[in-house]
Every structure is written in structure tokens, then in C-alpha cells.
Write a structure and sequence with these properties.
By secondary structure, the chain is of the alpha+beta class. The chain is built from 15 helices and ten strands. About 3% of the residues have low confidence.
Length: 411
Amino acid sequence: MSRRRAASRPRRSPTEWAVRGALAVVAAGLGTVSVAHSLAYMIRGSDPERAHALAPWDGRITALLSEKLSAPGADAADRRQADKMARLALYQDPVAVPAVATLGINAQVRGDTAGARRLFAYSEKLSRRDLRTQLWAIEDAVAHNDIPGVLHSYDIALRTSRIAPDLLFPVLASAISEPDIRQSLVATLSKQPAWTSQFTGYVAGHGPDARNTASLFQALARHNIAPPPWGPGLLINRLLTEGHAVEAWQYYATITPGAERNRSRNPRFAAAPSNPTPFDWAPMNDNGVSASLQSNGDRNGLFDFAVPAGAGGPVLRQMQMLLPGRYRLTGVSQGITATGSAAPYWSLDCTDGRPLGKVLLPQSSQDNGRFAGEFVLNTGCLIQYLTFFVPDNTDMNGTSGQILQIQLSPL
């Protein structure tokens, strides 16, 4: 039966076998080309020469090769070859934007500014995502002292290129020292482009002059534009470290409604900022100490502390910039039973270490926990610390309690 079936099948002619063979060769060739092109596209950014060798017909890859050949430091021969590759790329792909940018850059290098301007205008018409086009536009606007034009190109580059922040943020951070640029930048950021938070975070920590950054942030605050949550604390610490205490306070007062220089802040611990500045209450947890600002069931809060035996020291602090004069400290405690040398106390000290006085806390069972005292601040002490101390206590239970209210104010 099987021999009959085999005998009944028609035999293929030599022509049919030839066609089938040719189709197999074509299929294999197309597969090879497809693999080569895929590999070329994978390595086009890191090795455009090899990518072009694998896929010399791809205009996008040819354009990237022209870009590399026209990089900074290219000599005249490199630029001639770059022009050749750029023209080939545009022949292969008329919308290969990097090729247009290459021709524009080379024209500028040769002194043909008018030609470069025409080419870059065409490049931007094709796409606004080419970083070299925007960088040239920035340089051209700078040359003409066109600040709005500079920031317009900055905005486009920072919105369309992932690597633009690394290139442009350091330059822009330095430029805010110029009032005209800072004013124009505020106008740009008031529209809240996508890079606003990233830039304000960068300049808070890396701006060359913290005072200029503070001026920028104060202007932005008037437009309800805030930096990242950690930005103000970082900037204020920089200002203080650089010796600009007055500017640090001025910026803090701008972002903290109701803050007054002649009194302590947040007397009822109503807010516990997640990123406190030195001018906010700062619990201090060292050597097994537990210290925290907590909610008290309403809009107010409290400061809770527990200090084990033998682990005394500062547990709460707030930086002050009081003017010379007499001040009164008042407050309310809860749960404090320590007395004598183990009694907690509030201390006001100059940042150079000079003590300005202290107020001992009685047991909370006395006068419903109320306590009070006075300090005298003379000249020569610009910055002070108001600190709550818990001395070492030999009692095995240590010292614990809460502060419900604390206020330092002028007499």
C-alpha cells in the first residue's frame, strides 16, 4: 500500500526545486539582514560606527554616526566626513534630525552663523527633542542677551531630554546670581514645568550661593511654588553653615506663617514637620532615649520623652535668633516626678557655648504642671539654642513625662 502511495505522488520538476531553493536563500538572507539590523539598532548609541557597518541603509543610524564625528574636538577632516554622513542620512531618511543638527554645528564652527541658524530652525521644525539643537539655541540666545529665549530653550531641553538636567542644572544654578535671570526664571517656574521640583531640589543642595537660592525660593513662594519637602531644611542648614544666619531666618519666616524672631515657635507642638529645619522643634534620640512629638487628640500635640537611667542629656531643641533683651519662659508639663539634681530643665545657650540661664521644672503635680522662668540676653549672641535637658538619674526607672506647652517670649 505504501509503495502505491509513493508511486502516486507527482514528481517535482528541476524548475520547482530551483524556485524552492531560491526562496530558501532569500528567506535566509532576509533573516540575516533582520538580525543585523536589530543588532545595529541595539548598539547605535554606544558604537555608531559598528552599527552603521551592520545597517548602512538606516538613516537614523547614519545620522548618529554623523553626530559622533562632529563632537567637540573634531578636526576639519572629521567634520567633512560628518557632513558627508549627515547628507547621506538625510537622503536615507529626510527627517533624521541629528543629521540636520550636525550640519548646523559644522556650519557654526566654520563661521557660517546664518547657515547654522537656518539649519537649526529646520531641525526644530522637524522635532524639538534634539538636545544639540536646544543647546545651540541657548548659546545663540546668550550671545544676543535674550534671557527669555535662553529660558525657553532650557525649558524645551529639560522637558524633552533625560540627560539635559546633568548638563544644564549646574549652569542654571550659577546663573540665578543675576537678578534679571532670577526674575525670568521665576516667571518660567511659575508655570510649573515638569522639571520644577527636580531643579529646586538640585539648587537647594548644590547652588553655588545659598543666598541666591534663598532669594529664588522666596520669590517662588509668592507664586505658591514650593521646593521638595526636604529642600527648605537643606537650604537653611546651608545658609547657617555658610554664615548667613539672617538670610536663613528671613527665608524660614517666608515659608512659616506667623513666625516671629523674638519668640519661640509652635508652643503647643501642633505640627510635627517630617523634614524639620533648625528653627523647628527637633527631638534628640541618643543613648537609648525615646523622644518624639505626638498628637494629643486635637489640633494640639505634646512632646513625650523617656530617658533610661544613666543616659541623661538634651532631648529637645529649637534654634532661636532672639534680639537682646529680657525673655520669659512659660510652659506646662505632665507626668514628671523627678526632683533635685535629677529634675529636667530648660536651658538657653549661645551657639558659642555661653550659657544664658536655665529654668528647672518642678514635679508636674505642682500647680497643674505649670512652670516659668526668665532669661536675660545681652548683645554679642546672634544665635541661641533653647534646649530641654534631662539629667542623669540613678533611679532604675529613669525619667519620663510630657511637655504640653512651652513658650519663650519677650517681657
